[in-house]
Design goal:
Layout: H1 2-36, H2 40-43, E1 48-64, E2 68-83, H3 86-90, E3 95-110, E4 123-126
Antiparallel strand pairs: 1-2, 2-3, 3-4
Amino acid sequence: MAEIHALLEDADNARHSIKDAVSTSLRDAVFENLYLTAIQELDELSTHTRVDGHKMDEIRVRRLDGAEIEYCVTGEVEVELQYGSNSDVEDDFGMRLDDSYPYKARVIAAAGKPLDIDAEAIQLRIDTSSFYE
């Protein structure tokens, strides 16, 4: 009985390790996508928009087959919105403010390499509707 308990505990530990590794890979790839890709929804909000970070709320596996794993990731992107140039801000003619907006990302990875995620292939949608309220 002790051997079965140990086996189940080892399986549970392995599952948590895989989950943590996938979560870290997804977090890094989504941040890279947010940081490197000019996202129209964010660029429309200010003269200069800078991505400060993001947090993931949920990771779901939408599809899993022999070739691919499709993840659905939801979270929130944290941005700095700047109105005017840097010199305008320094001269009190411009301003900066921090805000955050929810996002949804569709991520596809090879089933044999679930941690090898191409940041440029992530399909990302950011909901900026709260900015206009």
